[in-house]
Structure prediction request, 67 residues.
Amino acid sequence: MKVIKTENHIIMTSEITDPKYICISECKKVWWDSDIHIDASILETPICPMCGGPLRAASKEDYECLN
Ligand SMILES: [Zn+2]
Prediction:
């Protein structure tokens, strides 16, 4: 399990990899591939499952791993 701290959230996840996306809209949560169901034929940009905002690729500066 990982505990990830972002600007607005502390996220506990069963994922063992680093988060792949971060929301650049309201919620600023990080997400993994398993959270995002992208239909690439419709969407060019993945959409945040929580607030519907756009996501971008997460980098190490976007979050802190607490464990
Ligand atoms: Zn969001």
User: Anything to note?
Assistant: The pocket of zinc ion is lined by residues 23, 25-27, 29, 48, 50-51, 53 (CB under 6 Å). The two ends are 9 Å apart (CA to CA). The beta strands are 2-5, 10-13, 21-23, 30-31, 55-57, 64-65. The chain has one domain: 2-65.
